[in-house]
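User: 3-isopropylmalate dehydrogenase, Pelolinea submarina:
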Amino acid sequence: MDFNIVLLPGDGIGPEVVGQAVRVLTAAAQAEGANLNFNEQLIGGCSIDKFGTALTDETLAACQAADAVLLGAVGGPKWDDPQAKVRPEQGLLGLRKGMAVFANLRPVRVHPDLISASPLKPERLAGVDMIVVRELTGGLYFGQPKGREVVDGIERAVDTLVYNEEEIRRVVRMAFKLAEQRRKKVTSVDKANVLESSRLWRKVTAEVAAEFPEIELENMLVDTAAMRLVASPANLDVLVTENMFGDILTDEASVLTGSMGMLPSASLGADGAGLFEPIHGSAPDIAGKGIANPLGTILSTALLLRYSLKLPKAAARIEQAVDQAISDGLRTVDLGGKLTSQQMTDEVIARLGS
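Assistant: Predicted structure for 3-isopropylmalate dehydrogenase:
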């Protein structure tokens, strides 16, 4: 079994965590008889510096032709001028659109031994095991018209929140299919009391729910969902929502696990390569220090193995090795420990066969 993987280390700590995660990914794949071929490309700020664009046509073509793509992070203070015409985040948005990955899956599971690292009370965290499905290629981030203009001497800005029923249907259906394999509950998050797009979202969600009579559907306003995430997160199973709401809620959910460095994600489409990345940013303040938590990226490689390469045993090896390392008391700096990125990765690799 030969697979082609594109690596997009990106900016900040991206190259560090991707480099460590590749070590784990390679070892787990080889244990299951798979051979991985890696092709490294630029994206984000480093691509702007070299090519003047955050995503070249060549990089996008390589990603579209690959079996899977592993991304680190993009952005940093160097490219953070709000007046800049080219920004690192444009590369990420263009990559998602170009790869036709419309659903972002973010598992949120609290390890019992990391409960003390979370700011929430321990009793709020017992049994937390959810997955957030975020629509990825529509909504405010992509809607047109978009821009800024001066009207009668006053500057104004416009962003358009637009969805069509098929964009909603495909991501909601993916959420229901995931729920079939879990606790059979879907929470759909919208703002239907205010937004017309959310009223369409709720209508289409009800139609999809009719296809899955064994799955419980709960509709929830986004402000209520934000409260539920900290008040009673264990009651949530599969949560599905639109692009911007999902962006915000998943960052909120990351504190449940004790560190944003712990959470992986998978961006999937109807077919083709998937895009896998940790949910944290480029963390320029610690870049180059070798202390970034690699576990979010390592767990992202487990999702890569499961969803794109169809190697569930290799994926399970990684997840079990990370769980065991945490249970054995091993911690990076963000979790109150002293291990470097490489040392934590070494410990995970040592447990791959256990």
